[in-house]
């Protein structure tokens, strides 16, 4: 496994580096690992409506970066007390979105430090029922990107103020606030340590398991990363990209995440549609949205249009009948 040392804390650079390692270094069949931290920022899931996820006044007052990532899932708050890990590996297409497999090394590291952690729900790691890590993935036929947050000593007060959380998520989690559902790793360690020492413990464990080789970014690598920053991660269209007003909106929280469907209807026909949410999927959602254009906005026509589409490519782990019933309802 290659390890790329990265001390940059600019979230635009770090997300561009991740995407570059995943996609443009995809000629490498080897595995890559990154460990990195961001200055205070909100990192939004690929399919989310940014404006609906962040507390904009708080973002402005605290000069937070708001950056969209290429993986699905929900928005997360990052600061220098949070350590992020990334694996870019060959894709095991027979077992898509296996979060537990790729987050198990973190559980093993914590166990070696005297902390019992467990995989909890679809993509979280928890200590004593409290979440400290959210994980997300993006994949194509060749490569898989798996990354996760590790709340080590984050400012949980700012975390709770930075994000908007819908009431249906509170209800589904049976909790009253974001702050009450999360924890920092530091408070569970038998002996205090710095975040740098924690990072070193992860590296030692992974080196023992995989065997590390350093990968040093070339000048061409760095130019490609800078291009991604300029053309994507610094742009309003990627990070915010607000959708126009829609004539019809509906939302539902499935076991695999929330889906919000927005339609423009003219003379009973769908002239535009967008889907948002904290779900996962491995196909371009624009393609799915395109399938629904110019379809009559009624159940029989919608079911016929969706009959031949493999919806789980776009909405992973949401049964097709449940999704179709939601769209047609």
UniProtKB/TrEMBL annotation:
<dbReference type="GO" id="GO:0017118">
    <property type="term" value="F:lipoyltransferase activity"/>
</dbReference>
<dbReference type="InterPro" id="IPR004562">
    <property type="entry name" value="LipoylTrfase_LipoateP_Ligase"/>
</dbReference>
<keyword id="KW-0436">Ligase</keyword>
<keyword id="KW-0548">Nucleotidyltransferase</keyword>
<keyword id="KW-0067">ATP-binding</keyword>
<dbReference type="Pfam" id="PF21948">
    <property type="entry name" value="LplA-B_cat"/>
</dbReference>
<dbReference type="InterPro" id="IPR019491">
    <property type="entry name" value="Lipoate_protein_ligase_C"/>
</dbReference>
<keyword id="KW-0547">Nucleotide-binding</keyword>
<dbReference type="Pfam" id="PF10437">
    <property type="entry name" value="Lip_prot_lig_C"/>
</dbReference>
<dbReference type="GO" id="GO:0009249">
    <property type="term" value="P:protein lipoylation"/>
</dbReference>
<dbReference type="GO" id="GO:0005524">
    <property type="term" value="F:ATP binding"/>
</dbReference>
<dbReference type="InterPro" id="IPR045864">
    <property type="entry name" value="aa-tRNA-synth_II/BPL/LPL"/>
</dbReference>
<dbReference type="GO" id="GO:0005737">
    <property type="term" value="C:cytoplasm"/>
</dbReference>
<comment type="pathway">
    <text>Protein modification; protein lipoylation via exogenous pathway; protein N(6)-(lipoyl)lysine from lipoate: step 1/2.</text>
</comment>
<keyword id="KW-0808">Transferase</keyword>
<dbReference type="InterPro" id="IPR004143">
    <property type="entry name" value="BPL_LPL_catalytic"/>
</dbReference>
<protein>
    <recommendedName>
        <fullName>lipoate--protein ligase</fullName>
        <ecNumber>6.3.1.20</ecNumber>
    </recommendedName>
</protein>
<feature type="domain" description="BPL/LPL catalytic">
    <location>
        <begin position="27"/>
        <end position="214"/>
    </location>
</feature>
<comment type="pathway">
    <text>Protein modification; protein lipoylation via exogenous pathway; protein N(6)-(lipoyl)lysine from lipoate: step 2/2.</text>
</comment>
<dbReference type="GO" id="GO:0016979">
    <property type="term" value="F:lipoate-protein ligase activity"/>
</dbReference>
């Amino acid at each position: 496994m290659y390890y790329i040392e990265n001390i940059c804390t600019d979230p635009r650079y770090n997300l561009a580096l991740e995407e570059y390692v995943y996609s443009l270094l995809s000629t490498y069949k080897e595995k890559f690992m990154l460990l990195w931290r961001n200055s205070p920022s909100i990192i939004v899931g690929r399919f989310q409506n940014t404006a609906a996820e962040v507390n904009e006044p708080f973002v402005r007052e605290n000069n937070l970066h708001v950056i969209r990532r290429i993986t699905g899932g929900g928005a997360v708050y990052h600061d220098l007390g949070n350590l992020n890990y990334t694996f870019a590996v060959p894709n095991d297409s027979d077992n898509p979105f296996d979060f537990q497999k790729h987050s198990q090394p973190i559980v093993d590291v914590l166990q070696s430090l005297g902390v019992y952690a467990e995989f909890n729900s679809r993509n979280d790691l928890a200590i004593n029922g409290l979440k400290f890590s959210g994980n997300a993935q993006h994949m194509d036929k060749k490569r898989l990107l798996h990354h996760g947050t590790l709340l080590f000593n984050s400012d949980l007060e700012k975390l709770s103020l930075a994000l908007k959380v819908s009431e249906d998520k509170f209800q589904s989690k049976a909790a009253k606030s974001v702050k009450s559902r999360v924890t920092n790793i530091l408070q569970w360690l038998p002996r205090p340590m710095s975040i740098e020492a924690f990072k070193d413990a992860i590296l030692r464990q992974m080196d023992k398991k995989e065997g590390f080789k350093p990968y040093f970014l070339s000048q061409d690598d760095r130019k490609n990363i800078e291009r991604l920053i300029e053309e994507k991660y610094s742009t309003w269209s990627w990070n915010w990209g607000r959708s126009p007003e829609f004539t019809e909106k509906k939302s539902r929280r499935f076991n695999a995440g929330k889906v919000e469907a927005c339609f423009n209807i003219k003379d009973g026909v769908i002239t535009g549609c967008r889907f948002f949410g904290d779900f996962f999927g491995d196909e371009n959602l624009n393609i799915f949205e395109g399938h629904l254009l110019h379809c009559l906005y009624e159940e029989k026509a919608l079911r016929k249009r969706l009959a031949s589409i493999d919806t789980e490519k776009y909405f992973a782990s949401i049964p097709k009948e449940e999704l179709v019933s939601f769209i047609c309802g």
